[in-house]
Amino acid sequence: MSENSNINTETKIDTKNNIILKEIQPLWQQIKEDFSTPQQKDPAYNGFLELFFNYPGLIAIAHHRVAHRVYNRGFKLLGRIIMGWAQFMTSIDIHPAAYIGRRVFIDHGIGVVIGETAQIGNDVTIYQGVSLGGVSLEKTKRHPTVLHNVTIGAGAKILGNIVIGENAKVGSNSVVIKNVPNNATAVGIPARIIGQDDKENDKQTTKLPDIDQKMFEYILCRLKIFEAMVQECTQQDINTTMCEKYEELKEQGKILDNMYAEFLKAIKKE
User: Fold this and answer.
1) Per-residue pLDDT tens for 197-249?
2) Is there a cis peptide before residue 38, judged by omega within 30 degrees of 0?
3) Tens of pLDDT, residues 97-136
């Protein structure tokens, strides 16, 4: 029973091998949950009938539920054929060996790729163009493990045998090559951790910070301070050290620099 030290029972993951311990659930119950998920996660949902025509992610996952079981029972070619047909219909490429948890929602879906050894927990939301890819050709665990309640933005690439922690968010078009802690937000190329909350995420699961916007805000504020300093000194027509507002503006600059330093520290966190 020495293996138990490597198992996190709360998240049901084997931390030594980055493998989610699979839940045993009847096939039709899984598919029934899948078909109820869009109503909960997509505000554009209008009715049951459109699930068959407007939700390629749902169709791909339903096919995967069958293909995964067939593949694991030794009928690997049949599993590949099922997912090949699903890819033809939906433009979503999921390997039948990949593990997908309950109530996973692939929104829009076009261009999503989920590799052979990828593992996805429960209540994960994935947007179009996401890749859960590998970085080696070895026949080992080489794709990501995504834990519960994760949101992955459009176009994000998560590569290698890494773990995306519970309640984490991955920004659109980010490239993630290192583990992401629980409740953290990762953005950029390569992805950086720019925030980590101890609390569970609220319902705004797609609200991600814009680091470029923060950088521009800093630059604009800095320019305004410099302009005010120059203007004040020009109007006074005396040495800058004698300006009445010079010290006040200088202090504002220091406060802004401290804020910028904290921002840099946040985006450099591993």
Assistant:
1) 655 444 444 555 566 666 677 777 777 777 776 776 666 555 555 556 667 77
2) no
3) 999 999 999 998 899 999 999 999 999 999 999 999 998 8
Counting DSSP H helices and E strands in the chain, the numbers are 6, 18
pLDDT given for residue 75 in this prediction:
94
Number of residues assigned to the chain: 270
What pLDDT does residue 222 have?
Answer: 74
Contact predicate 146/124, CB 8 Å: yes
Separation CA 68–CA 79 (nearest Å):
7
Secondary structure percentages of the chain, helix, strand, coil, to 5: 40, 15, 45
Q: Which two tokens stand for residue 151?
A: 């949101």
Q: In what order do the strands lie in the sheet with 131-133?
A: 93-94, 113-114, 131-133, 157-159, 175-176
Could you give the CA distance from residue 56 to residue 87 in angstroms, rounded to a whole number?
10
Buried b (16+ CB within 10 A) or exposed e, 189-218: eebbbbebeeeebeeeeeebeebeeeeeeb
CA pair distance 60, 53, nearest whole angstrom: 12
Using alpha carbons, select from 124, 77, 79, 81 the residue that is nearest to residue 98. 79
**What is the enclosing helix (H) or strand (E) of 258?**
helix 246-267
Gap between the Cα atoms of 195 and 204, Å rounded: 15
Cα 256 → chain centroid: 30
Amino acid at site 82: I
Q: Please check whether residue 110 is in contact with residue 127, taking contact to mean a CB–CB distance below 8 angstroms.
A: no
